[in-house]
Amino acid sequence: MPETITKKDRKKVESFNKIGEDVFLGEVKIQTKKCTGCGFCVNACAASALEVKNKKAQMIDVLPMCMGCGDCVAICPENAIELVKFIEFNLFFKYIDRGHPEWPRRF
Amino acid sequence: MGKILKKKQASVGIDPPRKEAPFNPIEDVIFRRRSVRYYKKKQVPEYLIRRILEAGRFAPSAGNAQPWKFIVVQDRQMIDEMTTDVINQCKKFKKLLDYTQPGKEGRERFARFMQKKMPNKLHPIPFGAISLIADGKLGAWHGAPTVIVLLADMRAPGNPPLDIGIAGQNIVLAAHSFGLGTCWMSFITTLEREKKWIECFGIKYPYKLITSIAVGYPKGIPDGYVNRETQAIDWFSEDGTFKVVY
């Protein structure tokens, strides 16, 4: 059985700002060799977590609120971006247990 | 017209695919659909909007009540006004609730109380989005030339907002199959508080403002496959066994 958080536990949550304890943010990996600095990913990002520095896209240094939605992955014309981590709220709610990221599969 | 309706058209889904067959066009649209946040200024022609709304009209609904009302806004000035009003509303909420900035910890108690009252609407993600919109870091409709506003008729059986979701997804998938971009945007519900928009959209019983969809031509090619997390599926098999698949 997957672990679940009860409504009572859910009310005990102190803060969602404890990054790394209660909240694990998403993360993307950008291959700097392929990146041309076009800035499409910056415009596509819903969380304003990306920026272009020195003609290369990167995640911002301070609190990148990445949700792991993958919009930057899909829009990148050079296929330079890859999702490595998804956002996770440990105490607010628990996702049912998950496997690793997968591309659309054909069964 | 009659001819088309009488003849059983060979459509995509009639023959189930063989094992590991390539994706058919409908699956392809579903897998490649991404929310678009970067639009061209070019207006979408009326016939295309009519055509994607037709897909919404044929969505399934509880008791075939079809409890939806679509409003199409293509007036740039009106969309700009809506955007400023959404930003103003978010600024108000931010002033009341945002305790994450230094020196504003006093708001925390009230914010927590509200989070307990509205756990879904003030979940960390929309909570953060309120601040982003108020600061102008996150656009409302991202400069899309067309906005489709979706209202639910609350007299309908079952769960009318769910039916709106189904109709909306039909609209979105149809739009993406024409190469248009879309983005769901439910912060429009903050406009419920403004008299101007209540009158403009007719938001009074039985109609309830549910959500909106931005439609436009995307800049670049945002649609594409991405990797996503696989979630556990509980499976009660035919022979009485239980398994979890990913």
Strand-pairing-aware structural class of chain A? alpha+beta
What kind of sheet is the major sheet of chain B?
4 strands, antiparallel
The oligomeric state is heterodimer
Q: What is the overall pLDDT average of chain B?
A: 88
| Basic shape of chain B | globular
CATH superfamily of chain B, please? Answer: NADH Oxidase
The count of DSSP E runs of length 2 or more, i.e. the number of strands of chain B, is 6
Structural domain tally of chain B: 1
Helix content of chain B: 25-40%
Largest sheet of chain A: 2 strands, antiparallel
Task: Please name the CATH topology of chain B.
Answer: NADH Oxidase
Query: Any guess at the CATH architecture of the domain at 22-89 in chain A?
Result: 2-Layer Sandwich
Shape, principal axes of CA atoms of chain A = globular
Unreliable residue runs of chain B: none
β-strand percent of chain B reads 15-25%
Helix content of chain A: 10-25%
How do the strands line up in the largest sheet of chain A? 1-6
- Our measurement of the CA-to-CA distance between the termini of chain A, rounded to an integer number of angstroms, reads 26 Å
